[in-house]
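Service request form, structural biology core

Requester: graduate student, group of Dr. S.
Request type: structure prediction, single chain
Budget code: on file
Notes: please return the result as structure tokens.

Sequence provided:
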Amino acid sequence: MKKFLFLTLALFFICSSAVILETEAVQAESELKVALVVSGGLGDRSFYDSAAEGVEWAEEDFGIDSRVLECRNDPSLFRDRLIQGSMYGDVVIVVGFEFYDVVQTVAPEFPEVEYIYVDNTIEDQANITSIVYKENEGSFLAGALAAMMTTKTEVPNITAEKIIGMVGGMDIPVIRNFQVGYQEGAKYVDSETKVETVFAGDFEDPAQGKESALTLFSQGADIVFAAAGKTGEGVFQAAGEKDNYVIGVDADQRYINPEVIIASVVKAVNVSVYESIERIIADELNSGSLYTYGLEEEGVYIGYGTEEMNQIVPAEIKEKVQVIKEQIISGEIEVPTAY
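Core staff response, request fulfilled:
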């Protein structure tokens, strides 16, 4: 009887210890605090929302605590928001090229904080890890797709003029990288394709995006690539009014208006943010380094929406885009860059 009681108690303590250890492990993960600091604002259904989605995934899977700090494109808030995030978080996800200078001054003030700088590169700072994307590869596919689509005159509202366009949010290197890929992809398919570009001058001005797109449509563009964040919503509106077509950016945006948005150049910001947090929790982040996401890493790709949506892009064009994608990954096609 004593032996049985001893074994029972021993088993109880072993199980209790296991529960305690498991609970401590969960608590250790849930104690991680992550601040997401964005130069613009959430609700763009594109770049910033994708970053926030990555943090939300990490909350669900790892039990982290998080906070979002928006700057709404007000430069006077950049430093304050970064400091607020640094005082709150063990990790600060910094989203926006505009933070390039300020994050380099704030990070040394908080050496114990890990900074993940999304969509730009900072070197030689031990606590700043950079994430960049080969957006030129994704937009090369978009340019090829648009050039093929603009010859499909059997598709409603496609003319025989072979003109496509692009609305860029701002004339900055990352948008130029989109532009280079888009133009070269179109020329790769058909050297006679004419590619027109307009820079709206803002990432959060749908009215300016609409005006820019209407200009391109009036010049004969059948399809316009909107690499412009929230400004792109104005491009979608213009396409809806003129019965033209658009390619979205950063997220698979077809759901917004599947009758005019034929595809999207998806930049997997959500995945890269999630994976960064996952690496930190697993103590596998190579702090201070650069992580690059291209076609091979599935960090950029073409999204066509869901199967339930009306697919405007014919299967034959999708297959050709897939072949070009494989040629880029293999190195057979070398995509130029703006950098």
